[in-house]
Amino acid sequence: MLRFVAARACCPRAEPENEITAVSLTTDDVRKVARLARLGLNDGAVAEYATQLSSILDVVDHLGRADTDHVAPMFHPLDLTARLREDVARATVDREAFQAIAPDTAEGLYRVPKVIE
Amino acid sequence: MNWEAVIGLEVHIQLATRSKIFSSAPTAYGAAPNTQANEVDVAMPGVLPVINGEVIRMATLFGLAIDADIAPRSVFARKHYFYPDLPKGYQISQYELPIVAGGHLDITVGAGDTKRIGITRAHLEEDAGKSLHDAFDRATGIDLNRAGTPLIECVSEPEIATAGQAAAYARKLHSLVTYLGICDGNMAEGSFRIDANVSVRPAGSSAFGTRTETKNVNSFRFLEKAIEFEIERQIDVLEAGGEIVQETRLFDPDSGETRSMRSKEEAHDYRYFPDPDLLPVAIDAAFIESARADLPELPGAKAERFEAEYGVSTADAAALTASRAWADYFEATVAAAGADKAGLGKPASNWIGTELAGVLNRDGRAIGQAPVSPEQLGGLIKRVNDNTISGKIAKQVFDALVAGEGESADAIIEARGLKQITDTGAIESFVDEAIADNPEQVRQYLDGKTKVVGFLVGQVMKASKGKANPKEVNQMLVEKLNAMA
Amino acid sequence: MIHERSIADLIAARAAGELSAEAVVDAYLARIDRHGDTLNALITRTPEAARARAAEIDGALAGALAGLPIIHKDIFCTQGVKTSCGSRMLDNFVAPYDATVVERLTTAGAVTLAKANMDEFAMGSSNENSFYGAVKNPWNTDYVPGGSSGGSAAAVAAGLAPAATGTDTGGSIRQPAALSGVTGIKPTYGRVSRYGMIAFASSLDQGGCFARSAEDCAHVLAAMAGFDGRDSTSVEADVPDYAGQLTGDITGLTIGLPREYFAEGLEAGSREAVMAAIDEMKALGANVVEIDMPHTDLAVSTYYVIAPAEASSNLARFDGVRYGYRCADPVDLDDLYNRSRAEGFGPEVQRRIMIGAYVLSAGYYDAYYLKAQKTRRLIAGDFHAAFDQVDLIAAPVTQAPAFPIGEKADDPVAMYLNDVYTLPASLAGVPGMSVPAGFVDGLPVGLQLIAPWFEEGRLLNAGHAYQQATSWHTRRPPGFE
Question: How far apart are CA A111 and CA A105, in angstroms?
Fold first, then answer.
């Protein structure tokens, strides 16, 4: 499991918040993310992924060493702003074509196993 | 122990755009399933969202109307969860930088006092599709027509104390967005959906209790009922030594109760992050000013004008302006009745507030579906005002208009010969007849019981089939009786 | 021979009535018949449609690329043709619409011959992660062609088409171009529309192309590029006449060599080839200076947070509900999701989805995702600083030439570290290109050129100048001449 150093406790300025100090994913961690991502994994796969994902996080861990105190996040390679579209509706939906490639449809609806609320 | 409730409302306001928020598919309600979901709404591989500028303009209008800050830079973020009516596996919403923050609405509480309810934020997001659980025996059907319809989610501060205040806030918000023309306000079709966050705490306490969220309450009356029920329920649980579970609840209009939606609700981890397919939305001062110029007259200003221009009471002005549709109906009615706004306002307000409202209530119709048009009602008021008919006859004419028995008040008056009798000779013969036929009442009058004149007026009206001018009848009767004394 | 002619030559010959589109298309279809299976470079072939289209073009249609055969990476949606993205998840997916890139090239007169094999959802650097099997390097069929656009690169290297489209998220055009010995260009982020290009990491993905020379690339890129109202990240900037601006003159051009790209880890033969190429450019009149790009060592960790995070989100739509793979007999909705996704995605895709979900999840967002967006700015800052000093950056594309198929298959991390020279340009969004620059033990080596934002023309001209003076790009793999 990841451990974060609460920077405020000891040395408030020297380290960035939430520095990653050690990385290792447990099988429980893998089950949790697999659940978030809706990937149904068997125990063998979970164990194998735990090792592999841990070694990937070891690479990623390198990030923690960079000083980014005064750096703004760059969410996008071009610092542009949105272009707005005109509010024009185009009725060009070909339901037949869309549903010809669907796994299960009836009466124009996509079908999934019954959801009980 | 005394308890107090803490209520916050989250309202999803569907924006009345022609196309969707991120695709050019139409937004019209009620189309055949999946015929208004294009490749972007169905989340085909490789498709991309493009922001509808009208949505940004509408959100700006809304922000201005609630006196909020319009963010110079707002960001769309992805909110992840799996559900079959959420085609992308995430909803495009706003998270850290919403377009509108920090506004307020003033509601009327008790006898004319106002209370200011803060609005934390209002953000833009796309609607999901619809899951039809009853469409098939063993399957849920998914209709994505609604997917991508633009919504404003308006989140109030937890500053609402009673179910009544919550309903007042919701009504006020509803009125505002329909005024602004950004929402059609149709609650039955889901254009205005209310979720209520309710918690209770010992009176005077400053800490918040655990809250529940009651979802999708689709009328103001149900909102009030749902909150009342939820407050009672929570107090009962706490007083019995129990604990409130933080959960989502559904209101059942049939039982008037709320019930837990899922027994084992999974903790959500939405993994919000800025949508890399969309760039930040920049709103500059020029954009805001141009939106401001588009702002229509809002309810408060309109009510003040109605009082001044039409001479209606403060209460009537507030009632008439609560919805733009009613206010527009009122103004059109007066315009059709004549040029004297100050003189015609009050009768128009009375007709609309009692007779018309009564009919609409009875039939469960909205003002937009009124069986009598403002032109018809104005034409009727015009004829009362110029003494062509009496108030009593007018009611008959109104009923005929409601029943669709004539094109206009004039046509009905003409066809039924309802014109008031103003010929003094004709009235005099009715009056003489009444005096002759009712010696007992005449004697009572002469003995000083002058109130009995009302009875005699009634007799005359009856004899004239309501067409005599009651004022004239009264005057003539009094004159003649006094002469007998 | 038709397959040896340049794109400009083919177009001119057809315009002059000396060569028909049908003849060109037939010649390439014959090569596909002969070599296609050997390399496993193609997932779907469309010979009938190609011949019909060629006939149509011969009948009437003009256009900048009239009659030019092309192969599309199977990440671009093609209406009525299977678009698999190299995945079992989309093995049954026939796109109901064309990607903008496909639409533009078709409008320009290009004729689609086939859809190219690729790493599943463009995740990989070797083309071993395809549901349709590994693609082989035409220079040595025991070796990988690079990835993720390995099918496109191998197809052009083997002369199955004069040009192919590709996409580059962290090197997926430049790296296979280098390993397969062809020219490949990744334009500036925002230059080529992403509409209809199945998303891997939205803030990094960029479409581009492969061909045998910079000049050929110039023709294809000009037809692909340009503003598209359907892509919010597409940039409203004019597309220059790239081919028309190829002067072949680089006198006075200042080329920067980032020290960090020549440090430990660069295999000796590759270093020698790249340095020789740089000497050649110096001889052509360029000034060469050493520069520092101090945040280069953050690129791998930054990329392997951002790309998986965006991928985990982009791939959430593949849920077995509206299209694509659905598991057999799901018992309930969860089962439908869990099995469709576990069975439909291969292991590398699953790893990245999980890493992505993890770095975005509650409690980790700031430490990973937000942090990576900050280090991304530091990396982009290196490019801003560099381009204050130099006109172009030259560097290796990979640490070493192609490796044998299977060699790194069990070690995803080793594969990731291999991308170190291509990731920074992707993170910064600048255009990059790989041009053939020699061989090590019979395997090609590429020279990477990187230009400032929207300076694809400069890039292509430098590559063209180099190719006018050298002949590496004219070499053909033995057996595919």
Answer: 5
Task: Classify B44 as helix, strand or coil.
Answer: coil
Q: Specify burial of residue C233 (Cβ count, 10 A radius: 0-12, 13-18, 19+).
A: buried
Instruction: Note the pTM of the prediction, 2 decimals.
Output: 0.89
Question: Which residues does chain A have within 8 Å of residue C341's beta carbon, measured at their own beta carbons?
Answer: 37-40
CB contact under 8 Å between A109 and B82, yes or no, is no
B140: nearest CA in chain C?
C333
The residue count for chain C: 481
CA dist list (Å): B334 to B204, B396, C114, C421: 50, 20, 72, 77
Nearest C-alpha neighbor of B329 from the set B304, B355, B308: B355
Query: How large is the average pLDDT for residues B328-347?
Result: 94
Q: Does A117 touch chain B (CB under 8 A)?
A: yes
Residue C399 amino acid letter: Q
**CB atoms B46 and C99 under 8 Å:** yes
Q: What is the pLDDT of residues B257-294, one digit of tens each?
A: 988 886 445 678 999 999 999 999 999 999 999 999 99
- Distance of residue B31 Cα from the nearest chain A Cα, in angstroms: 11
> What structural domains does chain C harbor?
2-250+401-474 (3.90.1300.10), 297-373 (no CATH)
* CA-wise closest residue to C194 among C47, C338, C310: C310
Q: State whether residue B427 sits within 8 Å of chain A by CB.
A: no
pLDDT at B463: 84
Q: Which two tokens stand for residue B205?
A: 């306490």
Q: Are residues C316 and B89, on separate chains, in Cβ contact within 8 Å?
A: yes
- Model pLDDT, residue A3: 34
Which residues on chain A are in Cβ contact (under 8 Å) with B82?
A: 38
Q: Which letter, b or e, does each residue of B175-203 get, where b requires 16 or more Cβ atoms within 10 Å of its Cβ?
A: bbbbbbebbbbebeebbbbbbbbbbbbee
User: Is A77–C427 a contact, with Cβ atoms under 8 angstroms apart?
Assistant: yes
**Unique residue bearing structure tokens 């004019």:** C238
Q: Which residues contact C97 (CB under 8 A, 6 or more apart)?
A: B39, B44, C77, C79, C196
Q: Of residues C241 and B390, which shows the higher confidence score?
A: C241
pLDDT in tens, C369-416: 999 999 999 999 999 999 999 999 999 999 999 999 999 888 888 888
Sheet with B100-109: list strands edge to edge.
B69-70, B100-109, B113-126, B150-156, B3-14, B192-202, B212-217, B248-252, B257-260
pLDDT of residue B177: 96
- Across chain B, what does the average pLDDT equal? 92
pLDDT at residue A15 greater than cutoff 80 = no
Would you say the ipTM is above 0.95?
Answer: yes
Listed range (A109-113, B117-121, B300-304) with the worst mean pLDDT? B300-304
Among A63, A77, A113, the residue with its CB nearest the CB of C301 is A63
CA distance C361 to C364: 6
Residues A44-68: tens digit of each pLDDT: 999 999 999 999 999 998 898 899 9
Lookup result for tokens 């690339």 = C217
Q: Which chains neighbour B (Cβ–Cβ under 8 Å, 3 or more pairs)?
A: A, C
Distance CA B155, CA B174 (A): 14
